[in-house]
Amino acid sequence: MEAVLGLLVILAGMTHGLETSCDAREDGCQCYAALGGTVYLQLTETTAYDKYSFYKVSTGAKTEILKTRMDKWSIIYTPIKERVHFFINNGTLKLNNTRRNDSGEYLFEKYDSEGKLIGIRGLQLFIESPVSSPQLSSECLSHGDMKVSCSSEGDGPQYSWTLDGQTVRDTDAPPDNKTNTITLKKGLSGNLTCTIRNNINRNTVSRRISHCPGPVFNVFVYFQLAEVFILLTICLGSYCFYKKKTCPQEQDDGE
Ligand SMILES: *[C@@H]1O[C@H](CO)[C@@H](O)[C@H](O)[C@H]1NC(C)=O
Ligand SMILES: *[C@@H]1O[C@H](CO)[C@@H](O)[C@H](O)[C@H]1NC(C)=O
Ligand SMILES: *[C@@H]1O[C@H](CO)[C@@H](O)[C@H](O)[C@H]1NC(C)=O
To answer: What's the whole-model pTM score?
Structure first.
């Protein structure tokens, strides 16, 4: 029971609380975080002797989010107060329950003790939906080929396939849709794996596939054959019937 509960907790954690960390100590860093998850942004090593401000930039305007002064920090922008924590010991900002509109450009500014700007660093944050566990489905085509589809939810999924460890390149769809389909030539079998990844995470699904049956007569063909047979029988039957009726007469006439 406890094991089951533990597993449920882990699963819930995986779908709701995906955690990502990003080292944003260089100018122009790009950081990716899972929608609804938690992101740790390391902005600097230590904040001990300087003053810092962290801003969000949107349409040219700067909104101050966080301010640090020596060993103290405070959230300036109240709407996100509940979701932000700053670790002053290592200069890491934690943001939780991320939303789509947390995406965007941020600035981290450093001031000297007189309040003069001495450093500025930009950072781009992307909040994206992680890829879910993929679903595989397969279908036999009439001439023995097999169509296999792999699908998942999430932003910008990239699909890749392997059959017994060998890359399969024969994909039918553009590689960034909800569903990706490949066609396996007649007679192929083995362990097929579909991997989906995006900027946040990756997920994989494998299945042993056995080849499709080759071409077979379908029901329709049987019906058509039966039809031809019946018609032939009727023709032959009526021909014989006619022959039987007329032949003896001719014989009579001849005698
Ligand atoms: C994160 O989210 C929970 C609620 O889901 C909240 O209690 C907590 O204070 C939040 N903030 C941080 C920085 O962890
Ligand atoms: C910063 O410190 C916090 C709390 O001490 C810790 O949880 C976190 O992992 C640290 N981050 C880094 C990047 O060292
Ligand atoms: C961001 O999105 C949330 C809903 O996901 C909304 O409540 C909030 O007002 C939005 N914030 C801004 C600044 O648009």
So the answer is: 0.73
Residue in 170, 162, 166, 156 with CA at minimum distance from that of residue 204:
162
Which pLDDT value is given to residue 242? 67
Give the residue extent of every domain in the chain: 5-128, 135-209
Q: Judge: domain 135-209, CATH 2.60.40.10.
A: yes
Give pLDDT tens digits for 149-185. Answer: 999 999 999 999 999 999 987 666 665 588 999 999 8
Mean pLDDT score of the chain: 83
Contact call for residues 83 and 44 (beta carbons, < 8 A): no
Say how many Å lie between the CA of residue 87 and the centre of ligand 1: 14
Give pLDDT tens digits for 36-61.
Answer: 999 999 999 876 678 999 999 998 89
Cα–Cα distances in Å, from 230 out to 45, 219, 221, 226, 238? 90, 17, 14, 6, 12
Of how many residues is the chain composed?
A: 255
- Domain 5-128, CATH 1.10.3660.10 — does that match? no
Work out which ligand 1 atom sits closest to the CA atom of 83. Answer: 11
Rounded to 10 degrees, the C-alpha dihedral 68/72/78/81 comes to 110
Minimal CA–CA distance to 176: which of 140, 216, 141, 128? Answer: 128
Q: Ligand 1: does its nearest atom lie under 6 Å from the Cβ of 181?
A: no
Domains 5-128 and 135-209 share a fold: yes
* Å from CA of 151 to ligand 1 middle: 32
Other Cβ atoms within 10 Å of 38 Cβ, number: 19
Q: Among 13-27, 121-135, 208-222, where is mean pLDDT lowest?
A: 208-222
In angstroms, rounded to a whole number, what is the distance separating the alpha carbons of residues 47 and 119? 13
DSSP state of 78: G
**Cα 86 to ligand 2 centre (Å):** 10
